[in-house]
Design goal:
- With about 400 residues, the chain is of the alpha/beta class.
- The protein has 11 helices and 12 strands.
- A 7-stranded mixed β-sheet has the order 2-8-7-6-5-3-4, with helices on both faces. Strands 9-10-12 form a 3-stranded antiparallel β-sheet, with no helix packed on it. Strands 1-11 form a two-stranded parallel sheet.
Length: about 400
């Protein structure tokens, strides 16, 4: 599959997009793959009694295989969803509710981490309202989970552990293999929200002993509105579905699938697998270039582990400068203060608070995301604009 050299059209000629953790543009190759499934190939993939339906079903199953290949899974273990939020809800609530209904002798205790995405934390809190015991574990100043602390809590008994692969704000990578080994040793299911890790880092559900893994399409250059959940078959993981219907997707996620969206996610997964190594190296170089462009500024702090992180993410604070003021001074740059799901809130990031970052410093934190269509020229332009805006804000005080 040929590499893309022409990025999607931008909303303004001089705008620079640096928010790739929030969402990605759909890769033109993905668009080309999905378009026929809106028109000429419009069959219902569940209507396999005729050629139109069988053609759509074949495309969905091929996409399921492409997704499974990227994580070392069996295609039958891939359940399509509307995105990672639904996948996280299905994994966490589905697993614990099944145990509560069918295996009441097992502990309904859930362990997760303070820096998880809101949809994971809220799913766990919903279970607490249903009578489950929850434990939200802290992280260190580098954003990583203390494995000794995890083991200490696992010794007390747990039905499910949920730890994200890559943090959506600070980009740090948790030690999934070590976490999976501990969960397997103590008999707990291991779920990982891999929305920010899938397609960007090697994932192997067998080697990492992951039982449930959530995937998002729009983080890897597929459209919004499609994702997937990996559900282990052996040993079998049982889930209660979130809603009732026709029993599609192994009875776990009823509703008619969109072949176009499934094909898009499968194509994006295949491209990511083919280009992962080269793209990681390129993004790492861009991140280093951006930091080099900020060298003239004093008081720049990086948040999260400096090495155990995906290369396309930086989370930075500039001393004495509020992030919202800086963003207002940079209308050409698409930056964020953290998760797009909580960006409407003016409070400081709970992720940075969990790292022990002082509130004043956290208020100055910017998330800078690089991606497939970011160019070196854009990096130089953006870094120069940030330096100029910081100097102007400091001079105005």
């Amino acid at each position: 599959m040929a590499a893309v050299t022409t990025p999607p059209r931008r909303p303004a000629n001089d705008a620079i997009y640096l928010d790739y953790q929030a969402t990605t543009p759909v890769d033109p190759r993905v668009v080309d793959a999905m378009l026929p499934w809106f028109t000429a190939r419009f069959g219902n993939p569940h209507s396999t009694g005729h050629a139109f339906g069988r053609e759509a079903d074949d495309a969905v199953e091929a996409a399921r295989g492409d997704i499974a290949n990227l994580i070392g899974a069996d295609p039958r273990e891939i359940v399509f969803t509307s995105g990672a939020t639904e996948a996280n809800n299905l994994a966490i609530k589905g697993a614990v509710r099944f145990l509560g209904r069918h295996r009441p002798d097992q502990p309904r205790r859930v362990l997760t981490v303070a820096t998880e995405h809101k949809c994971v934390l809220e799913s766990v809190r919903d279970l607490a309202d249903e009578g489950a015991e929850i434990e939200i574990l802290p992280v260190g100043p580098d954003g990583l989970l203390d494995l000794a602390l995890l083991e200490e809590n696992l010794r007390k008994g747990a039905s499910l552990v949920s730890v994200m692969a890559v943090n959506n704000e600070i980009g740090v990578i948790q030690d999934l293999a070590a976490i999976g080994a501990l969960c397997r040793r103590y008999g707990a299911l291991f779920h990982s929200d891999a929305a920010q890790g899938f397609g960007k880092m090697p994932l192997d559900v067998e080697a990492m002993k992951i039982d449930l893994l959530s995937i998002s399409g729009h983080k890897i250059y597929a459209p919004k509105g499609v994702g997937a959940l990996y559900v282990r078959r052996r040993p079998r993981v049982r889930l209660e579905p979130l809603f009732s219907g026709g029993g599609q997707e192994r009875g776990l996620r009823s509703g008619t699938l969109s072949p176009a969206l499934c094909v898009a996610l499968g194509t994006a997964a295949r491209i990511a697998g083919e280009e992962m190594v080269g793209e990681a190296a390129r993004l790492g170089a861009l991140a280093a270039r951006f930091l080099g462009g900020l060298a003239a500024l004093r008081g720049v702090s990086r948040h999260g582990h400096p090495d155990l992180r995906i290369p396309g993410n930086l989370n930075l604070s500039v001393e004495g400068v509020a992030a919202l003021d800086l963003m207002a001074s940079l209308p050409r740059l698409a930056l964020s203060t953290g998760s797009a799901c909580t960006s409407a809130s003016v409070e400081s990031s709970y992720v940075l608070a969990a790292l022990g970052v002082p509130s004043q410093q956290a208020a100055g934190a910017l998330r800078v995301g690089f991606g497939r269509f970011t160019t070196a020229a854009e990096i130089d332009d953006a870094a120069a604009a940030v330096v100029s805006a910081v100097h102007a804000l400091r001079d105005a005080r």
